[in-house]
């Protein structure tokens, strides 16, 4: 779940190309307000869920950089994904964040 439009050159660019099914623009436009650092946890919209459910989570988690983690709340990311019916296993690493609760 990459929710920021920041794509760094080099290794990340190659990874983005191999994760072409990850709709970064869609995630940003449809889900940003549900994962921002500020504000309460909100149930995501059906439009956000449609994009989330199309994401390859392990691939998207590899795209999470420190810069992206500075913009979003990773606990909210997990909440949104799970609210949309996307399973994220405990122990999954997204950037430097490790998913804790099942």
From TrEMBL:
**InterPro entries per UniProt:** Bifun_inhib/LTP/seed_sf (IPR036312), Bifunc_inhib/LTP/seed_store (IPR016140), NsLTP-like (IPR044741)
Pfam families, per the entry = LTP_2
Q: Which Gene3D superfamilies match?
A: Plant lipid-transfer and hydrophobic proteins
Q: What SUPFAM superfamilies does this protein's entry cite?
A: Bifunctional inhibitor/lipid-transfer protein/seed storage 2S albumin
Q: Where is the Bifunctional inhibitor/plant lipid transfer protein/seed storage helical domain?
A: 12-94
Cross-referenced CDD domains, in alphabetical order? nsLTP_like
Q: Which PANTHER family match?
A: BIFUNCTIONAL INHIBITOR/LIPID-TRANSFER PROTEIN/SEED STORAGE 2S ALBUMIN SUPERFAMILY PROTEIN, OS01G0800600 PROTEIN
Its name, as the record gives it, is Bifunctional inhibitor/plant lipid transfer protein/seed storage helical domain-containing protein
Upper taxonomic lineage: Eukaryota, Viridiplantae, Streptophyta, Embryophyta, Tracheophyta
